[in-house]
């Protein structure tokens, strides 16, 4: 392969993605007990259909796009349309099928139950 | 070696991207990585827009119920206060707490007087939308010449 075709090929592979929105990290609270991992994330202005939660291969990714309804000329603007993005590593023992997500008042609540095998077990000692 | 013009273009594109990232780091606009919600300082973000006959306001109030929000208007003085008090669930270990609870109060002096009786407020997805129509006295008037 001569150099020219090689470069052309590289161009094809290099698909550039343009972003119009700022990517910001939402503030989160994370709690854990024996049964589940509980996550809260502040995403004010994100509607349900603009939110995506993905758990794949031990990686949890949250993404929510905020589209504000505005009208008129801005006198001042302290927040704008953004994409809330944050990624976490989660244990493989999360039961992905039973994960529950709820969006209320701009706060995402994510219940991630642990699978049965991952829960601590009390072992009974038998007396002979 | 740059064999093509597009290579040079791409190089500058990368530099632009880096510059944007750095800009993002040092501005509060859009809450970049590493900053906390301003609730901790008792301050919430607000936007103000001017429409012909009034104002539109947007406030970030994630996790707040409408019962915990208060809006006061007198003339061109607007005061918004609220609180967020989310209990730590029982029996959970804490890994991260970035969100914070507390109260906030913020007051604004609007450019014109507002008709307090016709103000509308709606809470949607953690954003408070306010429609503030100007009072009749503050509206521009056409004067006819006799």
UniProtKB/TrEMBL annotation, chain A:
**This protein's superkingdom?**
Bacteria
Xref: InterPro entries? A-crystallin/Hsp20_dom, HSP20-like_chaperone, Small_HSP
| Keywords recorded for this protein, A-Z | Stress response
* Domain SHSP, residue spans: 19-128
Q: Which Pfam families match?
A: HSP20
Concerning SUPFAM superfamilies, the annotation shows: HSP20-like chaperones (SSF49764)
Family affiliation: Belongs to the small heat shock protein (HSP20) family.
In its UniProt entry, what is this protein called? Heat shock protein Hsp20
TrEMBL record, chain B:
Q: Which UniProt keywords apply?
A: Stress response
In terms of Gene3D superfamilies, this protein maps to: 2.60.40.790
Looking at the record's lineage, which domain of life comes first? Bacteria
One Pfam short name: HSP20
Q: Does the keyword Repeat apply?
A: no
SHSP domain ranges (all copies): 37-146
Family membership, please give it.
Belongs to the small heat shock protein (HSP20) family.
PANTHER family xrefs: HEAT-SHOCK PROTEIN 20 FAMILY MEMBER
This protein's name:
Heat shock protein Hsp20
Origin species = Desulfotignum phosphitoxidans DSM 13687
């Amino acid at each position: 392969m001569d150099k020219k075709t090689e470069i052309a090929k590289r161009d094809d592979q290099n698909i550039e993605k343009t972003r119009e929105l700022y990517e910001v990290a939402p503030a989160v609270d994370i709690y854990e007990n024996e049964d589940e991992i509980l996550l809260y994330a502040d995403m004010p202005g994100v509607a349900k259909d603009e939110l995506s939660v993905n758990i794949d291969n031990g990686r949890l990714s949250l993404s929510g796009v905020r589209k504000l309804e505005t009208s008129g000329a801005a006198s001042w603007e302290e927040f704008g349309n953004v994409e809330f993005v944050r990624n976490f590593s989660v244990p493989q023992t999360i039961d992905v099928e039973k994960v529950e997500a709820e969006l209320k008042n701009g706060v995402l609540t994510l219940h991630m139950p642990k699978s049965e095998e991952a829960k601590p077990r009390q072992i009974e000692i038998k007396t002979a | 070696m740059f064999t093509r013009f597009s290579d040079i273009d791409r190089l500058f594109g990368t530099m632009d991207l880096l510059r944007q990232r750095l800009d993002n780091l040092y501005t509060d606009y859009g809450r970049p990585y590493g900053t906390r919600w301003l609730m901790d300082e008792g301050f919430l973000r607000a936007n103000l827009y001017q429409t012909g006959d009034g104002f539109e306001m947007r406030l970030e109030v994630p996790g707040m119920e409408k019962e915990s929000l208060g809006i006061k208007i007198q003339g061109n003085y607007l005061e918004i206060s609220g609180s967020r008090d989310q209990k730590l669930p029982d029996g959970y270990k804490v890994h991260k707490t970035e969100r914070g609870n507390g109260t906030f109060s913020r007051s604004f002096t609007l450019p014109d007087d507002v008709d307090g009786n016709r103000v509308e407020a709606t809470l949607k997805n953690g954003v408070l939308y306010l429609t503030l129509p100007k009072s009749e006295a503050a509206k521009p008037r056409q004067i006819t010449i006799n």
